[in-house]
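Ticket #4471: structure export looks truncated?
Reporter: QA, pipeline team
Priority: medium

Steps to reproduce: submit the single chain below to the structure queue and open the exported record.
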Amino acid sequence: MSHRPRKRFGQHFLAPAWADKVIDAIAPARDDRFIEIGPGPGILTTRLAARAAHVTAIEVDRDLAAALAPRVPRNVEILTHDVIDFDLSPLLASGPVRVAGNLPYNISSPILFKLLAASRSSPNLRDATVMLQREVADRLAARVGTKEYGVLTILVGLQATVERRLVLPPGAFRPAPKVQSAVVRLTFKPSILPPDLEPLFDRMVKTMFMQRRKTLLNALRPFADAQQRTSGAILAAAGIDPQRRPETLTMEELLRLVQVVL
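Actual output as written to the record:
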């Protein structure tokens, strides 16, 4: 019996022809172990299983998980959990793992940050090739100075390189979403920021980009005040023009800026 996509889970199921293209974008190898987020009716799951060593599929919808379990090959394990609350560490303990999935648009950013946290905890998380709303994909891969460049670009860029792999039209899904989608690959790497600076960096970036239309002198002021410093003094110490705007700062400049706060 077919499963009607459930709006509360943000379900949009992929058409078979597009599933083949997504698998090519993921490029599974014979010895790869995968975590699949949100397998749904299994259109990617079975294709991954045919080309990889093992797939652990995490599905929040109990009905979908129950329907999928008897239809998958032996190298697939179905887990019924909300991936946001699920502890990934046991799956990462026994060797390299890749992630794939069609992420629900309404929780795609929290899932991405969960994967980043998992990559900090384990070097075994190699990469994640996921479908997202194209707008989110554009923000992930944005260049400095563009309107898409912002908090998501910067915080993900600390720990991952981002590569666009595929753009999908609304008609690639059932039901068709109102937006385009894209497949991106995040290849994880050790964070370029010392762990003790991460909370400070996070606050600084979020504060500045809440006022991204202002000059750095003004956009940085609330953060500087909280540190009992002046924004002008911080910018001068970092050698950054206070009349620039937040979206013009490179990662290197942002790192220099947070280091002079200490």
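Status: closed, not a bug. The export was complete when the record was re-opened. Leaving a note from the reviewer for reference: Residues 5-10 have pLDDT under 50 and may be disordered.
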